[in-house]
Amino acid sequence: xxxxxxxxxxxxxxxxxxxxxxxxxxxxxxxxxxxxxxxxxxxxxxxxxxxxxxxxxxxxxxxxxxxxxxxxxxxxxxxxxxxxxxxxxxxxxxxxxxxxxxxxxxxxxxxxxxxxxxxxxxxxxxxxxxx
Length: 131
Description:
By secondary structure, the chain is mostly helical. It folds into 2 domains: 6-71, Rossmann fold (3-Layer(aba) Sandwich); 81-125. Helix content is 59%, strand content 6%. It is built from 6 helices and 2 strands, in the order αβαβαααα. The protein has a two-stranded parallel sheet with strand order 1-2. The radius of gyration is 22 Å and the shape is elongated. The protein starts with 5 loop residues before the first helix and ends in a 6-residue tail after the last helix.
């Protein structure tokens, strides 16, 4: 990579809260490079040639799948779709209202709604617009 090495790119990504898992790779890495990259947030470090990449990819994908499943645990799947959607919408709007200090304009923008539509939706869901 011209002008930048992988370690500095990793530091840049992690300081910007990069959401994807990063696997570092090098053909001439030292032990301290491996340790530093893991401490910075890389999920693993591979040395070339790549004999062990398939098991690593499987492990990362299975970890992501299990964390995705945990995000929807707690939902009662025996509810009707309308009831489940109402519960989700209430949690969604409460989350964004709290996160954005009850700024209706900001929440409407995030949700892709007109402010008047959001006001109506909050009223229907029984959500107080003010803290």
